[in-house]
Amino acid sequence: MDYRKIIIDSIQSNLYDKQVLSELIAAPKDAGMGDFCIPCFKLAKEMRKSPAVIAEELASAVKTGGILEEVKAVAGFVNFRFDKARFAQQVLNDAIQAGENYGKNDEGKGKTVCIDYSSVNIAKPFHMGHLLNTALGGAIYRIYKALGYEVVGINHLGDWGTQFGKLIVAYKRWGDREDIEKRGVRGLVDIYVKFHKEEETCPELSDEARSWFKAIEDGNEEALELFEYFKRITLKEVSRIYDRLHISFDSYAGESFYNDKMQPVLDELSDKGLLETSNGAKVVKFQDDTMPPCLLQRSDGATLYATRDMAAAFYRKKTYDFDKCLYVVAYQQNLHFQQIFKVLEMMGCQWHKDMIHVAHGMVSLESGSMSTRGGNVVFLEDVLNTAVAKAKAVIEEKNPMLEGKELIAEQVGVGAVLFGVLYNSRIKDMVFSFDKVLNFEGETGPYVQYTYARCNSLFEKCGDIGEEIDYSGLDNEECRAIVGLIEKYPEIIKESAKKYEPSVVTRYVVDLSQAFNKFYFEHKVKGEAEGIKNARLLLTKATGQVVASALSLLGIETPQKM
Ligand code: ARG
Asked: Is 196 a catalytic residue?
């Protein structure tokens, strides 16, 4: 049912652009005001009338009838009210009938979106900094899938650079294969940290590292073998984490993949007269120096991060013919992406406008900052393990007889971490706190998961939904608020996709959970007359289904019991 269309069709006036009106339709802040409203404030300027006058005009042009029961102008808003019982009946039945597919659509059919996310660095720890990035990318991936897009998840591995020369030196001097097999990236990080300490008193180590890196570039067998070994160790560890976060990728083409794909780009830039030489290096300069030049080749011939991203952009366009290519990367790299996108524009690539840097903030732990070189690193795996242990402790305290509590603790602990970092708008920096994300009473993953389990428990208490349904059982403020929220879910998915903002979903599912819990505490289900009980069970079923669906978009599981 398209309720927005019903509203627009009811307005018998051509004074206002129906498309504009349609975009203004919203849910009233206070559910008591109606089911939908049109705020008239944005129209005031163009129409040269006050919002109150516009609202009056619009309201008097509305023809009620059918499901649309009442319209009222109040302080610059036009409020629409539907026949309560019919509205509830339609919304809930639509949702339940569509099942898992409720809220999804096919607006993206035939379109491809590439998402570059997580993009971890080989032989470096998967630390807290990658968490938000990975969580965001995974959520945006699923959200676009839900809208019918063909989505390509790309892990642009950081698998190139002089640090691999250093690592080879470190490994040959101090590496212990057995230890590295056992401790994985931690073992690699330890010798890498040692390299930097030793380098201070033993500068020839730097030269050695440089020549080993050169050996990798030249395809020396021993060097390549070690390089691949470091990569294998890292990916093994990283995939363990991806599994726990329910993340997967369609491509692991990282920086080294572009080794042989950069020269054609440099040539084209040079043919187009865009490549300039500056102190022996090759750069692209921007008009009026709006940005610092984009460095694409060092004077010793070495290519850079930006060169690889240029090659990757062309490769992706050619391979996937994307409609959009998203880069989920921290805002520290704002300038880098502005430069890349601008260079593409200067090269005449129309598709430069389809390149989007989905920037995000930093996550730090309460205990402070981190750096790989200094060895002061918080491994994400430890964070997940701590969260799971804490979730387990809560379960042991509150519900020690719970069946399958190991698995549930994993779902709650990991879910809490994901939900916690996806709760704020992505651009904000955040300080991660275990107590906050695991608070069962806060705006958290566990709170929402608990609401889902509560929906299930109502069915355990009351049995299935019977035949006789009396929708007047939903005629109260609490139930109406839930119906309104459930109706909004498809719009929520669209909005979060449009803004590349999973927090739209996170916030929504908290609102829905709060609305449900309010209903749960203020109204009975069991013990009510049969028809009323059934109507409320229907509401419960639709709520549980939407909560589970929203959480699954965020990569979070929903245990049946908690
Ligand atoms: N590996 C990089 C980092 O950890 C992120 C790569 C992002 N993607 C890209 N195409 N530049 O900072």
From this structure: no
